[in-house]
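Appendix C. Worked example: Thioredoxin domain-containing protein
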Amino acid sequence: MADPRTPTASRPWVLPAVVVAVLTLVLLVAVAWSSDGDAPAAPGAGPGTTATAPEDADPGDAPTDVQGPAEVDTAAVERRDPDDPLTDGPVDAPVVLVVFSDYQCPFCAQWSQETLPEMREHAAAGDLRIEYRDVNVFGEASERAARASYAAALQDEFWTYHEALYPEGETRSEDELSEQALTDLAAELGLDVEQFTRDLGSAGTADAVAANEQLGLDLGAYSTPAFLIGGRPIVGAQPTQVFRDAFDTALAASRG
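Step 2, the predicted output written as structure tokens:
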């Protein structure tokens, strides 16, 4: 079995069926949004609902090519909500990077280790806003980790906790994503454990995680990681240069 840590640039690639679904859904969403200005509502979507990927969607698929050049109307995807705790960079940054991820996905861990630090430098410079959306295609342990990272975010410690969930660019085992283990991790990081425990189990946290998950699945992000940067979809843990080029292109376009 191939090592999931193998850099994607060197892996042979065959277009999986799920990527076709991603592209098809992205284009459908683009048409729907551009026609009425609102994101289409998914059946059953709403606070507290649980989104489900199609039965034939394989969370282990890791496409390794940029999908494009399709672009989408990002008005409903780039929230630019000043109260969103899962973000970095100014709300009015010229470029937005939306990340659809999963805490049990090895390719997500790889991308967070190799590429996210450089993207955060752009956020610190004020040119990029990063918005994280956990899709949780790997199941309950992923959903618990997403709730835990959201609880940490409510103490302004999202990025610290996020990094700890991917130690040295690796994923944690399911045992390490139990509620007790996640609470112990919060204690190790110096968070207020009482508040963390309360937020971890709150309806508000569950609703926020479910809404982010549904957003990703509505766009066809059944395989992680997936991204929108400046409205351009990218699928897979691409080399950093791919994101560097996409950011530079989007920034130049924003400046006319």
